[in-house]
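Reviewer 2 asked us to include a model.

Predict the structure of this chain.
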Amino acid sequence: MTNTSPIGAAAQLSFRQADEADLDELVRLRDDAARWQIERGINQWQPGELGPEHFRGRLREGEVWLATLGPGGPSAGAWELWWDDGPAWGAQPPVAGYVHRLMTDRRTAPPGAGRVLLAEAERRIAAYGRELCRLDCLTSNTRLRRYYEDAGYTVVGEQSGKAGDGGRTYGVTLLEKRLGV
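Predicted model (structure tokens):
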């Protein structure tokens, strides 16, 4: 019997910080998520857009986390955790953590895993002593915006010209959630 609740997914997942040995796996997760988006008509990520150098930079400048099915099991997802995000939010006091590239492996992740990954990111931010979790999504991606709002996030603004990977600019919706620090 498959457990479809986020609580059941939490019992199945383990978390660890990624390292250099995980670069190819992070690229695979990102590319698979991009293909999934394209298949559903979501024009956000493109396969091959981010390679090992992107994730190597994030390992140096922030944190990258992997979720696995139990300790040492196959990957179920990943996310980046940043401690500032000038491109989307501008200069801010150090009160938030910023979640980027939240992605699940559709082949292995149990149902509800995305919410569990997001909750783990929030827990990490709160443990760091920050009171807000912030993230953004393409303004045109109403499905993802609704997903975050259903997870307790509030829209706090729009950024019409965020500078992104590969020199692209695009509009994003800014969302945040107050954490119980």
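Residues 1-5 have pLDDT under 50 and may be disordered. Strands lie at 13-17, 63-69, 75-82, 96-104, 132-138, 154-163, 169-178. We have added this to the supplementary material.
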